[in-house]
Each structure stands twice: as C-alpha cells, then as structure tokens.
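# nightly structure sweep
# worker-07 picked up a monomer target from the shared queue
# config: single-sequence mode, recycle default, output format = structure tokens
# input follows
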Amino acid sequence: MKKQELNKIISIFSISVLLGILFDYFFYDKGLGIAFPLYILLIVFGLFGISYVYKKKIKKDALLLLIPLFFFSVMTAVRSSELLTFLNVVACIYLLLLIADLCFDKKISNYLIRDYIVVPFTPFKFVTPFFKSVSELSSLKKESKDKKVSSQIVRGILISIPFLIIFILLFSSADLVFQKYMSDLVNINVEGETIVRILLVLLVSCAFVGAYSYIFNVKKEVIGSKERKLRIGSIESYILLGSVNLLFLIFISVQITYLFGGQSNISSLGFTYAQYARRGFFELIGVAVISFFLLFGLDRYIHREKGSSLRIFKILSSLLVVEVIVIMVSAFMRLLLYEDAYGFTTLRLYSHVFIIFLTVVFGLLIYKVLKNGKESNFSLGVFLSAILFLAGMNVLNPDAFIAQKNIQRFNNGKKLDVYYLTTLSDDALPVTVKMLDISDESVKGEFAYYMYWRVQGKGSSNNWQSFNVSHRRAKEIIAPKMEVLEGYKEYIEEFE
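# output follows
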C-alpha cells in the first residue's frame, strides 16, 4: 500500500472514531439542543477533511444541500416542538445520506422519484466499504520499511485504547476523587452503562467508517442508465382515467350538494355540520395520494403516441387533477369545520399543510404531463418543495400558531381546551402565558394549575449540549410568573 493510500485510510478511521466519541459526549443522556447542529457541522468538516486527503473536489450539487442541512439542524436548537424537531432531525439525516450519494459521481438533476425514495436505504451500502476499509487497515503491518513508523503509530493507538479504558475504570473504582474528576470530565456513571456507551461509540464510529468509505471508495452507478421496458397502451389508460374521472365526478357532485351547499342540506339528513365534516378527512387524503401515484405511473409508462391519442391523455389527466384538487378542497374544508368546532391541534395543522403541499405536487405533475417534461425535473421540483415547506413550518412556529388560534377562538366565545394548551411545547409559552392576564378566573386558574405542575415536573438540564433557544426563553418568561402560579397549585383539588 502506498503512503498516500495509508494516509487516506487513517484519515477515515481517525475522523470516524472522533465522531463516535463526540456522539456520546453530545447526546448520551442529554436533551437535543445546540449540540446537534454542532455535530452536523463536524460531520461536514470531516467530509471536507477526507476530501482534502483524497484530493477530490466535492460537487456543487452536494454543496448546495448544505444550506438546508444547516438550517434544519440549527432549528432543532431553536424550536422545542417534538414533532417539528423530529421532522428536522429526519430531514438532516436524509440530506446527509443524499449528500453521500452526490459528492462526486451523481447530479441531483438526474434523480428520479425512485431515487429519492431509496435514499433512506443508503446505509445498507455502507457495509461492504466498511469491511473493505477494515481489511485495508489490518494489512498495515505488511507494509514496507518506509511506512513502518506510521503503521506502528496506528496500531499502537488501537492497542492502547482498550487498556486505557480498563485502567481508568480501575482507578475510578479505587479512588473517589479520581472518579469524580473523570465523571465531571465525561459525565460517565462508572457502572453498567459504561459498556453500553463504549458499544455506542464503536457502533457510531463503524457507521461513519462505512459512510466515508462508501463516499470515497465506491463507484456508483449512473442514474437513468436503464431503459424502461414496461409500457401501457393508450386504450388501457383511457379506460382507467375515464372510469376514475367518472367516479370522482359523482363524489364531487355529492360534495357540492352537501359540504359546499350549506348546513341546511346536512341537517335534513339528521347530521350536524360538524359531524358531517368530521368524517372522511384522512380517507380523502388517501384518495389524493393514490391518485398521484396513479397519474404519475400512467405518465411514466404510457406508450406515447403523437396526435389525438396524446391530446386525449392530457385532457383526461388534467380533468383528474382538477377533480383531485376539488376533493382536497373538500378535505381542507372538513378540517376547517372540525377546527372551528373543536379547536386547533398539531395533527390538524400539519394535515392542513400536507394538503397544500399535495396541491403543489399535483401542480408540478400536471405541468410535467402537459409539457412532456422530464421526470428528473419533476422529482427535483418535489424535493425542493418538501424542503421549502419544512422550512416554512420552522418559520411559522406551529405550537405558537396553534396556541394563538385556540386563544382567539376562546376570545370569540368558544370553548378552550386549557389542558391541551399547557401540553404544547415551550415554543408556545410566549403566547399561552397571556392566559394569566385574562379576567375569566376559572379558565385562568385551570391554566395556572396545569402550568405550575408542568414546570415542577420538568427537569432542568444544565449541560451546554442541550441548550435550546425556546427552552431558555421559556425559563425567562415563567420565572417572574412563578409567584402567581404558586397560588393556584391546588386549584383543581379545591373543586374535587
């Protein structure tokens, strides 16, 4: 193995082990906070470091994805909504895997829908490169004399690590002061969890070894190299689209009569408007999703014939999209009516946004059908739309929006679910804390009671890794209110 190759494999293992150790330090038994974007930054630095050693220039497509990657990672330390934080973390992992594929060999403009779908399965491709890198590392002892020093250094470090760990554990057990210093340094409870944490470090390190090895050592297949063999004839597509369009028209006529036609038509059947609107929302969303894959599949595999056949397909496709949009409007209205009757929740808000996102996707799809556009352009449009919608949710601040809407409903004389209001994340606290200033003593007392016990039951995290802007702001807001909350700590019990 040449000296240059030796430096390459050492760089991958060194950075991977460092990231494994930092993963434990940043995240083990700690809340998600400022450490997450910092860790993402270190992963990217590792990528650039190894690329420098390999003398490979990362492609522009991968570099552009760093913008949404850093945005979503930072938002995990800004927002405290659990669902939004989960989506931000998932988006970061997805973007990292996508970057792994795009670094050198591929272009995102060539990606098809199926390529975006299989991105989450990229880690399975890390297994073979990992074993290849381990095999290369183990062969260091066979190197010639001019490489003997580097080989000995690497092997010496690898041999020393387990012995150092054993000695530290023994010294910690023997001396309480030494144990305290070591515990303060790495915050390890020198008991059974030590083995778990060591295994975690090894697992994460191995994952990064596989990932970086895959990026820099594996040749990837070029997308779109295979021709599609499956074809659907024009007649089959006409029958399918025609029958679906007819069914949708019948359903829409019912919607026009009842949902869009006013409350009197609903009441004549023995239903309240809210009861009618409550049913079928998720079913309609399912219809929209299935319709998308139906139309997308037909457009992808239809045997394209010029002239009248192609015009008929475009007309039927356009009609289907229009009908689906009407159905999604129906679902949107059902949700609005339900919210008007029962209030806003996280699930209902995200459902609203998903409907809008689906509408945008259908718009991109019909544009592709009418213009005979490339699937890769359509796929890129959907991918960018997903990034923009998630970024928009971060800017919107969902929990604060939900709290504001529910309080607004209450001010308009409607019922307020006080308990649900107090279960919203710290993102909503700047809005919900205003409930302590309302004149309705019963609602104010209920809110103060639940908020007091929420604060009491919330453990405080003093480690810097868990720092979160929303949590810090919430502490600053609630601190001067604690005296008021204290007076309501037994409010509910007084009426039981």
